[in-house]
Every structure is written in C-alpha cells, then in structure tokens.
Amino acid sequence: MKYVDEFRDERAAQQLAAEIRRMTTRRWTIMEICGGQTHTIVKYGLEDLLPPEITLVHGPGCPVCVTPLELIDKAVAIASRPDVLFTSFGDMLRVPGSDRDLLSVKAAGGNVRMVYSPLDAVGLAEKYPDRQVVFFAVGFETTAPANAMAVREARRLGLKNFSILCSQVLVPPAIRALLSSPTNRVQAFLAAGHVCTVMGYHEYDPLAASYRVPIVVTGFEPLDILEGIRLAVVQLEAGRHGVENAYARSVKREGNVPAQQLLQEIFHTIDRQWRGIGTIPMSGLSLRPELAYFDAEVRFDVGTITAEESPECIAGSVLQGLKKPHECPVFGTVCRPEKPLGAPMVSSEGACAAYYAYGRLRPPQAIETSP
Prior knowledge:
Distance between the termini: 31 Å
CATH class of the domain at 64-170 and 256-299: Alpha Beta
Helix content: 40-55%
CATH topology of the domain at 64-170 and 256-299: Rossmann fold
Order of helices and strands: HEHHEHHEHEHEHEHEHHEHEHEEHHHHH
Largest sheet: 6 strands, mixed
CATH superfamily of the domain at 64-170 and 256-299: HypD, alpha/beta domain 2
Number of helices: 18
C-alpha cells in the first residue's frame, strides 16, 4: 500500500537498528506514549532489533486503559436505564466495570449500540426523540474535536435528548506527572503523532526544558518508531534535550488550529482521574459550564458513584512504565482477552492485549488455555 509499505521496509529497518546499535554507549529507558505505537513495537518485534542497553517501556497512551473504573460503572448505570440509548466505540463495550461491562447490559436487554462516530449518536438522537441518547466520549486530544463537534451539532439542532459521558484526557500533563514521580525511570519520550497532528508540539517544549528529557514526535509504522528512537538516542548520547518532529508528513508545530479553537469553544480543562495512576491536575477536558445540559454525568446524577480497582491488576504500574505486562502474576492466566481483569487486556491499544496477541513472553499456561 503506497505511503505505508515504504515505512515497513525490512532492509531500511535493519539499517536504522544498526545505526542505533552503533551510537548507543549507555543504558537508556525510552517510553512511547501511544498505544498504537506499543502495538507496532510488539507486533514487529522492534525491541529485538535494539541493543540491550535500550529499554522500551509503555506509557499511559491507551485512552480506554486510563479510563477509571468508576467511569465504567457510571456508564453501566446510565446504559441500564430503560429510557437510554447508550452509544460507544466498540473498544469500550468489553471493558470490565466493578460487576459487569456494557456488553452485559446489552445482553440483559439494554439499548447499547456501537457507533463509528459521535455524529452517529447525534443522528440517533434526531431519529429517536423519545430516547435519551448518550455517547461515551473517551480519548486523548485526537478524538476530542469530533466529540466537541457532536456537542456543537446537538446544540445547533436544539436536541434535548443528547448528552456525552466525558472522559477526555490530555497527554502533556500525564508526561509531567510521570516525570515528577519519584519512581520515574524514563529518560526520553516518543510523543504520539496523531495527538500532535491536532495540538502541535509547542506544549512539549517546557517539559523537555524543565525535566531535561528529549521528546520526539513519532509516527506509527516500524520505520517511524525506529527513527524516533534514533533521534532520542542521538540527544541522550550528546547530553541534549529538546523536542524534535520525526512525523513531519502529518504534524506541524502549530497543529490544527481550527480543531483547537473548537475544543476551546466546547471544553475547559479540569483535574482528571487516571486508572491506576490517580488524579493528574489539569489533565482532562470537561464540558464548559454553559454546556452542562449535555453532560450525562450531571443529567443522570451519577457523579457520586465510586469504585475500587482490582488488587490483582497491575495496570497502574504498566501504564507508568514501571512494569511490563508479562510481569503481572495473572497475565495470560486469570486475566485474558476473553475475561480481562483490566482495560489494558481488552483494549485494541492496550499493552497487555498486544503482548498476549503477539505472544511476547506469554507464560506457558496462556498458550495452553488460549482459544
């Protein structure tokens, strides 16, 4: 496929990997901040091409994975109401809540539907005026403009039966939280190219300067990621720190300004809880006060629902780059894609799902019990 195959060229990958091996003289830990990048790294075995001095760790770059358990419970409570038509992208439907997931609600008779765009949910609200249509708005800056557009369109149409359950999170505050942690071991970051396509990368300059870490905006194909690693190692070996754009075919420094203006029109920044990590200040988006009518959490009065994470699931440690999925005692045994304990095993961008799907350090029990 043109514009894809050339970024999967094996010979070019081997050449990049050889260059990285030649220039590496010390141990470095590099974190990719996107679940899509994690899957590429694991699927293509990129870590096997790197020198042993380089350790890749997986960050909180899967929006489904960082959605807190209590928000899943709120979604389940809303979707269980007889007057609600609950809509979501498919990867949220099997994320376990405290007792059940959204697919279980559907199996029990709830009106839960998978959609491909938040505007599909707006269309359903027009079609079924006697139903309360809710869209589960989950994601990073990448999905936020489409969710904002849905709210703007519902407002333009005067829809009184449309709302969103919002779990929009922001990448730069998460990086700051990781770097501020006393347990941090990350020395460079591969920033998510699709997030930067929307927001640009000027927000990363203060992080690189304050914490003296290289940050490289990186794409999603094998050569993209190897080039991002190469540029990060060049900076690390030279003792430099700055922001570089290795995804110039998609990302500009200023980003998509109209999309950013739309976000400012519909959302404002708030503190947000992240699964397994805790509350990160000013790391989330919420509907502006004048748009609270479209906030499902307010409309259905579920704000008081709380939940405790499973003590068996080490999602927090995986999302902070402190442990790899296979280091979890229940990985591939008690926790499997068909019966996940946590979101990283069920999400299409989850690190645990990637390790399981591609057989990376899968324990023998998982091989025996996998379908």
